[in-house]
Amino acid sequence: MYTYTDKELNSLNQYPNVYSVDPDYAKRNGYSVITSSPNPNPSPNDLKETDKIKIGEQEFQVVATKNDEETGFQGLAVAPIVNGQPDYKNVAVIAAGTDPDSPVNKQGPFSRDFYSAIIARQTYLSPQYKVADQFVKEIMDDPRYEVSQLSGYSQGSYMLKVGAKYHIPTTTFNAWFKYGALTLEEKAFIESNPSMFIDYRRKNDDVVIGNDFNHPEWYDSPIDITNSMPSTIHWIDGSSHKIEEWEFDPVTGQLVDGKGGKPLVSGVYKAYANSLRGFSHYKELKQKWSAKGISGTEQIYLDAAQGQILSSSMASAAQIGADEVTALTQEANEEIEALWSKIDFSSYTELSAEEVEGIFASQGVTREQYVDGFKAEIAHAAAQMTDSAAAFARLDHQLQAAIEKVLATDAQLAGEFQQWKAKM
Questions:
Q1: Which of 161, 163, 200, 312 could form a disulfide with 170 if both were Cys (CB 3.0 to 4.6 A apart)?
Q2: Which helix (H) or strand (E) holds 33?
């Protein structure tokens, strides 16, 4: 199960990526047009087109795009390329933020996109939401794909509502979004599954202040008598609205707090969110079948699906955990080396450096004890985590192989499995 890092989602939300599904934007800024189907025989005067996006070492295949001139919506769907092949079972859908300079379908002095943001401020919800909802639904309904992640920036943060509606993990940045736009059912789902929804905001965002004064609790649902805010917002100091100014851990790709450089949300937390998505769809399908009685083959599928969700989620969480421990190990090693190097044995004028070092050693304070011993201990812990991740990966592979073996001997059951999986 592929887990998108905060850095990857942030980059997909940036220029030139999601914005460049609009040919006008790409032309104005000298970028290639992002499309799922580049022209194989372009003329010299045509704009350059691409169906690939690369972030660091990770490449993504463009699955679908949407450019709606009426509302100013731009959307992008991608699949990570894993072992040389697009992983269509882990598609991310991204909604662009506002492009105030677009000349397309202007509304008086404003770009259509900017005008949609004004409407969102006045009415709780951007006109782009309906287009985004339809775009996500179209991809979900395509049996080739599974949508595992949503994301948006600024005005595009209405993706939180789309995620709450379809029970899909969602990460947003600098949200120009009021939680009062949620239905009671959507809000209840977020409150029951807060780990699936991550809303990164700056406490003094100099743009969002014009939407909710950086006090989203003032604009909660006008029809919800509980008047409570979902615990999805992760605050950080600062006033910038620029998406490119968020900082990320260089190893894990998770967003850091800007002070001690600590991730606000662990990658393991996001893996857990993915498992909640799977179980949410599992429960919906089981409830639907229960109304008319679950057949024997349906029960086989439900058991298999439950096992697949558990095993793939455990394998993903274990691997992310091992990667994070490895990153922490490297950081800890550097810190213990730096700490030991600050000890200056020659700073004592009455004794030689060798004598001072000998006194320290007589009390057990040696490099071997404090530096080498520490490194050996945490290396052992990291190795154990890596071994556990490998064990979970083997278990997941064995379970998947066992299911495939059964399906290979029963064509009818295999066909039903594919139909049921599409419903999940």
A1: 163
A2: strand 33-34
* Rounded Cα gap, residues 12 and 55, in angstroms: 8
Residue from 247, 250, 244, 270 nearest 19 by CA? 244
- Give the separation between CA 56 and CA 73, rounded to whole angstroms: 27
| Helix, strand, coil percentages, rounded to 5, for the chain | 50, 15, 35
The answer to whether the CB of 396 falls within 8 A of the CB of 314 is yes
Average pLDDT over residues 120-136: 96
Over range 104-115, report the average pLDDT.
90
**Backbone φ, ψ for residue 128 (5° rounding):** -70, -20
| pLDDT over threshold 90, residue 287 | no
The one-letter amino acid at 215: H
Please identify which residue in the block is written with the tokens 């970028």: 31
Tokens, residue 243: 């998406």
Q: Distance between CA 286 and CA 423 in Å, rounded?
A: 11
pTM: 0.72
pLDDT of amino acid 225: 60
Neighbours of 201 (CB within 10 A): 22
Encode burial over 382-392: b for 16+ CB neighbours within 10 A, e otherwise: beebbeebeeb
Region of residue 56 (phi > 0: left; psi between -120 and 50: alpha; otherwise: beta): left
**Both structure tokens of 146:** 């599974």
Q: Is pLDDT larger for residue 14 or for residue 301?
A: 14
More confident residue, 34 or 224: 34
What's the pLDDT tens digit per position in 216-256? Answer: 988 887 666 666 778 899 999 999 999 999 999 887 889 99
Largest CA distance in the chain: 90
What distances in angstroms separate CA 293 from CA 283, 289, 296, 300, 396, one per listed residue? 15, 6, 10, 14, 30
